[in-house]
Amino acid sequence: MGSPQRETDRDVGVLDETEVREPKKYAVLLHNDDYTTMEFVIEVLERFFKKSHEQAMQIMLAVHHQGHGVAGIYSFEIAETKVSQVSDHARENGFPLKATLEEQ
């Protein structure tokens, strides 16, 4: 007779490689508006997304000219936190800067 303990040991904790998936990634987008200053967008990118001044300038120009720009790509939880931080900071400073997340 086979041992039930051994059957349980075989079935527990075994994952087929095809079952392991990378977590989904989400882009944090900043959206253009008529009131938020370019300087404030640069400050947000440097402060919350750790961008260099040059990177922040490039993203800010994309926001300005294309209507939105990608501030960074993160896991869902981190992207959600970044959106919240940007929204709170913008509101505290009197700007309507909008940040959203988009699945990649």
Provide a quick synopsis of the model.
This protein is of the alpha+beta class and 104 residues long.
CATH class: Alpha Beta
Give the total of beta strands.
3
Largest sheet: 3 strands, antiparallel
The named CATH superfamily: Ribosomal protein L7/L12, C-terminal domain/Adaptor protein ClpS
Low-confidence stretches: none
Number of DSSP helical runs: 4
Rounded radius of gyration (Å):
21 Å
- Helical content stands at 40-55%
Shape assignment: elongated
Q: What amount of the residues lies in strands?
A: 15-25%
> Which CATH-level-2 architecture?
2-Layer Sandwich
- Give the termini distance in whole angstroms: 52 Å
What is the domain total for the residues? 1
Helix/strand order, N-terminal first: HEHHEHE
